Every structure is written in structure tokens, then in C-alpha cells.
């Protein structure tokens, strides 16, 4: 899920925007699009379980269908429209 806004560097306020704000997921793990930037710039250490999981998938992130994305929105972001429908539901 992407946003038109940009993420600011949380570790260096002087750095300015570092990437377009987005949430990435493979259906099991969820991470911000800025994660690679923090690993590269600040050598942030990733959880071993995440590295092992991604390596087992050859670092490929599968495309998820709308139902899977809706479930992730509900579970992690609590995101629903005011009328109670899911964000990805067609009107």
C-alpha cells in the first residue's frame, strides 16, 4: 500500500525525505518501504526470523490478492472506511 506522501528520516531529522511512504508485506511480515534505507544508511539489524523467512523465498515478495490485503489492513492497521467497508472494497 502506497501513499502520495514522503517518509522523513526518523533517525536524522536533517536528512529530509528518504522515500515514498508505503507499507510492504509478503502476507506474513509487514514492513515500511523505508526499511531498506535504514539498513543501508544506519546498518539497522533485521530480526533473524525475518531474514531467514525472506531468504527462504529468495527475497521475492509475492503479489497478494485484495482479500489478503484487506485482512492485513484490518489486522495491523485497523483501517476501514467510515461506513465499515474495507479500504480495498469496490463501491
Q: What do these coordinates show?
A:
This protein is of the alpha+beta class and 91 residues long. It has one domain (2-77). Helices cover 32% and strands 21% of the residues. The protein is built from three helices and three strands; from the N terminus they run βββααα. The protein has helices at residues 35-42, 48-56, 66-77, and strands at 2-8, 17-25, 30-32. The protein has a three-stranded antiparallel beta sheet, with no helix packed on it. The chain starts with a strand and ends in a 14-residue tail after the last helix. The mean pLDDT is 84.
List the helices and strands and how they pair.
Layout lengths: L1 E7 L8 E9 L4 E3 L2 H8 L5 H9 L9 H12 L14
Antiparallel strand pairs: 1-2, 2-3
Structure, briefly:
The chain is an alpha+beta fold. It has helices spanning 35-42, 48-56, 66-77, and strands at residues 2-8, 17-25, 30-32.
Task: For this entry, give a set of tags.
alpha+beta
Amino acid at each position: 500500500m502506497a501513499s502520495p506522501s514522503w517518509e522523513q528520516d526518523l533517525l536524522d531529522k536533517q536528512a529530509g525525505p528518504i522515500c515514498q511512504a508505503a507499507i510492504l508485506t509478503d502476507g506474513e511480515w509487514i514492513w515500511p518501504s523505508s526499511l531498506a534505507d535504514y539498513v543501508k544508511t544506519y546498518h539497522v539489524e533485521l530480526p533473524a526470523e525475518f531474514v531467514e523467512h525472506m531468504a527462504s523465498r529468495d527475497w521475492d515478495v509475492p503479489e497478494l490478492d485484495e482479500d489478503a490485503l484487506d485482512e492485513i489492513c484490518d489486522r495491523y492497521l485497523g483501517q476501514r472506511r467510515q461506513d465499515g467497508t474495507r479500504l480495498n472494497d469496490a463501491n
